[in-house]
Every structure is written in structure tokens, then in C-alpha cells.
Amino acid sequence: MSKPSVLVVGSGGVGTIAALSLTLNEKCNVTLVVRSAFDKASTEGFTINSVTYGNLQNWKPTHVSKSVESAVAENGPFDYIVVTTKNIPDGPSPCEQIIRPAVVDGVNTVVLIQNGIGIEEPIIKAYPKNPVISGISLIGSTNINCTVENSHKDTLKLGPFHNPNISDELTMEKVREFASLYQNASKDVNEVIIEDSALRSRWEKLVYNMVLNTTCTVAGLDVNRCQIGEANENIFRPAMNEVLAIAKSEGVDLPDSTSDYFIHIGDGLFYSPSMLVDSRKKQLFELEVILGNPLRTASKNGVSTPVLSTLYGLLKMIQLRIKEEIGVVQINEADYKGVNSDDYPKTFQDLQSKKT
């Protein structure tokens, strides 16, 4: 019987470690898509410095491809498509478009190891016959020029996303199968936790991401500098209370202690969250899946979110600035002459639609 074939899309710190775990277990054939660093990854491989996987030189997965298209041509079809890229639906390349060349209706299972909520909806809409799995990675891992620094044990929470077009039992079967491919023989190396529902863990992680990630990006400061500026009482706790209230409106009752846990998780580390790092590098960040989608849930359920809504409004402007700076959008000031500024958002959307 042939081994399952797994495509990993995204070769950052999380994606490369995922490819490493899957390869070391020798239960599947792994193809890793590496775009910008393809030449180095395909010839020299990766340097891995991991707290649990050890230190490896010139490591490669089974296959390395430069694009999803070439991966399919060289090694497809795939049983699992693992997506670890940043999820930016308001960017030029949404996830459902990125994986399109690899998807075969009713054949592949899509594993989304990404932040946020509502991330499964565009995938299910685009590929209604394919099971979709939630993956929440709890790992400290970065990849800079094919050198991966992994400081925490690789812990992966897997659960089913509900797809109304296929049975939950089938999706759960795929969860268990993928878990068996990923889990190392020793739980000291990595640990896969199977959950019946993805919601609780996703909302729990959002308590951090919706508040600390966003506030630091607006302020342009790391977490502890924000806290020196009295963010714990002025921003963090009030905003986290709003996150807990939204989660509760969705049937997820998180304890109040969740806020204190995440407020103090980085005491003394002066850590810059990923959204802040992206904004400093003039890269688009995961605004909609981390903040926009939860706020739309709050609006639907009648939950008041004054702090989070203010952060969202400010971050939309920062994201717009980055989009303009990197050429994703163009703003011709002459197009807005004589237009009421209340109508600027609609004017902008109309102009962008014409360009696409």
C-alpha cells in the first residue's frame, strides 16, 4: 500500500517544522512549497535548530517545489493539502486561490494550520466536497533564509471544521489519520491533541491575538513597552473582556483567568507579536481573520465592542497604507475631488473593482 501524499504550502517557521515532523515519521511523502528561497532550499536544504527535533544540517523533505502548480505536476495528486501561509483574504492572493491547482473535488483533505476564525468558510465555499481540518499550532518557530529556530515543543491541536456537504464522521476520520501521520513516536518531541470542535481553542488563542497583536501594531511597540504605558488596564483587559463576551455569545465560555494568563505570558520578554513584525516589514497582516471576522460575529450577536472596534478601524488604515506602499492598491487623489468624504470608502471599492 502506497504512503499518503502530503503537500505543505507555506515554508515559514510553522510550515517547515510541519514538513519536518511529517517527513521524520516516514508515514507519508511530503512536498514542501518554497517560493522565494527555492534555490537554496532545493540545493542546500534547511538548517534546523530545534528544542525537540534537534539540530539538523542540509535537511530536506521528500520533495521541494517552487509553486503549487509545479508541486502538482511533479508529485500530485495529494491526499492532504496543509496550508500554513498567513491568511489574508483582503490581500491579492486568498488561500482558496493559492491551493486551487492542487485541489481535486472530493479527493483531498485541506488542513488549515492558521490563526483566526471563519477561515474555513472560503475553502468550503470554493471546494464543497472536500473535508477541512482546523490546525492550531502552539510553537515558537521562525525561518530566516532557510535557517529555522524552534524554541518550544511542537504542539498541534487538530479538530474538524463543519462542512454541511459531507459527514462530520468523515472529517473526523481524516483528523485522526492526519494526526497519526504527524505525531512522533515520542510525545516529548511533538504532541498532537485531537479536539471534537475547533471553536474553543480558536477563541482562546484569539484572546491574545485580537488584543496584544493588534494593540502593539497600532502603537508600534512590543508588548512590554505597551504595558509600561499602562496598556494592561487601559486597553488589554477591557479589550479581552470584549473577546470573552463574543466567544460566550458563540457558546464558548472561557474563564476570566484566560485574560490574566495572556496578559502576563510574556512578562519581561519585550516580545514583538507577528502582526507588528509584519507591519514593520511593510507586509500585509492577518487583520480580517484575527479581528474583522470576530467583530462581524459580535455585530451579528449584539455584543458591544468599543475597544476592539476602534483597534479595527485604526488597523484598517495601517493595512491600507501598506497596500498602497507595496503597490497592491493605487489611490489617485484626483478621483476623490468633489466627492463627499462619507462616500470615500464606496468610491475606493468601486475604483478597485474596475481595476480587477
TrEMBL record:
Pfam families linked: ApbA (PF02558), ApbA_C (PF08546)
Database matches in SUPFAM superfamilies: 6-phosphogluconate dehydrogenase C-terminal domain-like, NAD(P)-binding Rossmann-fold domains
Coiled-coil regions, chain positions: none
Top-level taxonomic group: Eukaryota
GO CC annotations on file: cytoplasm
All residue ranges annotated as the Ketopantoate reductase N-terminal domain in the record: 6-162
Domain Ketopantoate reductase C-terminal: 200-319
Protein name stated in the entry: 2-dehydropantoate 2-reductase
